[in-house]
Amino acid sequence: MFRKRKKVNLVKELLQQDRSISIRDRSAALDYLVAFVDMMRPRLSEFENVQKKFAETIQFVHQYPSVLNNLRTAIMAQLINSNLVPMFTESGITISRGAGRELFARLKHKFLPAARDPNDFLYLLNRIFFKQTDYEWVEKIGRDKWMRFFDGIGLSFSGSDPVIIKQAVLSLQILSARVAQLGWEKEITHNTPEQWQPPNNPFAVQQHLVYQIKERILREHQGPESIQDLARQLSGVLAECEELVQLIRDETEEKGTSLSQTFTLFQLEQKLNRMTLLLDIAEAEEKINLTRFAQMFITVVRYENRKNSIREFLSQTTGYLAYQIAEHKGKKGSKYITASPLEYFQMIGSAMWGGLIICFVAIFKNLLGMLHMAPFWHGFVYSVNYSLGFVAIEETGATLATKQPAFTASAVASSLDARKTDDPPNLYNLAVTVSKVSRSQIASFIGNLIVVFPGTYLLAWLYDLAIGHPLVQGEKAAHLLQDQHPWQSLSLLYACNTGFFLFLSGIIAGYVENKINYGRIDKRLTEHPVLRVSLPPSRLQKLAAYLNSHGGSLAGNISLGFFLGMAGIVGKIFGIPFDIRHITISAANTSLGAYGVGWEHMNYRYLANVVMGVLGIGFLNFLVSFSLAFFVAVRSRDIHLKDYPGFLKILWKYFRSHPLDFIRPRKRRSETEKTETA
User: Fold this and answer.
1) Region 192-202: what's the mean pLDDT?
2) Does 485 lie in the same domain as 384?
3) CA atoms of 285 and 224, how far apart (whole Å)
4) Closest C-alpha to 38, from 14, 8, 73
5) What residues form DSSP beta bridges with 83?
6) Do 539 and 658 share a domain, yes or no?
7) What DSSP assignment string belongs to 387-436?
8) Residue 377 sits in the same domain as residue 308
9) Which parts of the chain are coiled coil (predicted)?
């Protein structure tokens, strides 16, 4: 009696009753489409079988002609009786003038979705693809199969569909005006080559051609065949617009980019792609280009499912900016990768100089700790001390082991860069590159540590000899050792904080370098009205050249110094366990603590644990920094690691056959390495 009745799908119900859908009954047609998509939609547990389910649905449609007719009628009923302009001009296209406004709009609509007009086609689309995961299986089916699906049901927009044609032309005019406006933005005009300057600016020319097309179709009531010549001209101009957008993008590697320029180019690309489709609809005599239509269908479904996704928006719009930041880091990262024994030992020598500078940084830090001042000012002077040390390492050409991962990760990711070549990456050569990164990192750690331990101890002894008492002693010295202990302190957790700060300082360095290139800072400095009369031209030129080549690294080093110097103070101010542990500084503090405690009072087993803690700190510094930098570099280059499932197997095979390559270089490199290096 209370048994739940089995739900019958409307598509199968009408088939059993041999009933047809009327093109005037928009509501029934919508219910039919909802039921049809529900037949096609896989369950979450069946996403892997989406292709099979799609094929079964298509077979079902072609098996019963009445289902095919009803489906075609239901689609045309929505297209003819709905307002298509919002779908053509808004869905899948960013319409806000700024990244901040678009971000705010999405955040607002997450809590209170925007109201939709029932006559709006997007309202119907959201009724049909109402699940937020629908875009996943729609994309999984693929553009080619959707194209064949639309072709199979006989979908066409021709001159016999004046309502659709008029809406397409109106949408074309709206997008044309928006493209023209964006084309006159400063970020675009300043980078437009001479050949496309007015009156040949394609963003302006396309608007004039769209106006002529609109006049012929809407005012003169002529068919698509009357605009063939204009359509061909407009198609060529739109291609020029796309070429100009790509040219500006290509030049960002040399000139840099900004979030504003990235966002403008992103919008232009979206609108130009949609205009090409609308032009195809407006001039279609029999059929539209189903390839473009299928792509728009997939894009619109994704956008409607993800229209309030902040992560999606940030991923799309900041991709090229992140790419430029990662690219600047990747260029610098190549200098940290050793290939030959000579480069390997040069790396160790460079790291030894870096270790020597850190010895003095650690001594000065403990001397500054003796000053009586407020916590904030202690953090400030610590930060200045660290910053000066890191800048000194950079300026002397020395190496700090923990600065490498943020740069080498970008260099490794560039080996998989899909934007630089159409050829698939050589995964074996990538494994060779990973081995080079590994041994280069080990070389820099060795160089830093073999100087920091004895060097700091020597400076502590000289201080004791000169002043008459150790720099640190007693409980303070024991505390320095305990702070590096792997399980008697939170040193390993704090090492992860340091890894994040190392990554963040690398991002800042790349961003500032990109900003200096994009803003033409060197040229603006040499033309500064005050500096030109204050400094000799040669000195001003040198200052501009220095800032142009070293500005990014200065910003990265200074920011890292303040991150490390202020972290412990922030923890004390807020009363939370928050601090940093940096391998070279921890090694120096271990040496100071060992001198202060004295070898006669030293528990060597405890000291061995502390040394292991220092090595663990170094490992986590590297792991966190490299992982974050590699993730950003991979995402910014549009690389999908799932596309290379065999890489880990190749890397493991290479490691088993050449394990020592990950620690030190071969005396004579293999042909593979020579080829890869070249």
Assistant:
1) 84
2) yes
3) 6
4) 8
5) 120
6) yes
7) HHHHHHHHHTT---GGGSHHHHHHHHHGGG-TTT-SSPP-HHHHHHHHHH
8) no
9) none
